[in-house]
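QA checklist item 7 of 12: single-chain prediction sanity check.
[x] sequence parsed
[x] length recorded as 102
[x] structure emitted
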Amino acid sequence: MTAERKYVMTKVRPGDYILPSNDGETLFRIASYEEDGSGYWVGYGGTREKQIVGTHWNGFRYNRPWDGDDAFDDEFLDWDRWDCVIQTQTSRKAVVNFLLDS
């Protein structure tokens, strides 16, 4: 089920977005990265199944108590403040739906 969004995403830079949860209590970060084809999805038994290539998306949860003033903190975007909760998705929409439904 796709959750309806109460808040809009804020673009930090290309491929990097901040999204509040619908209750406004949690902050999520959605970021893309490029796979160059050097990795493979590995099947059962260790056989190579599919080359990983293209744009993929990860979702993160802010791991500190949220205060609106944090957005002005120089360290707000440091990756040590964000815990990965979903990764290697082929669309931003899939990550957003997962985060808002969790």
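[x] summary fact logged: The chain has a mean pLDDT of 86.
[ ] second reviewer sign-off
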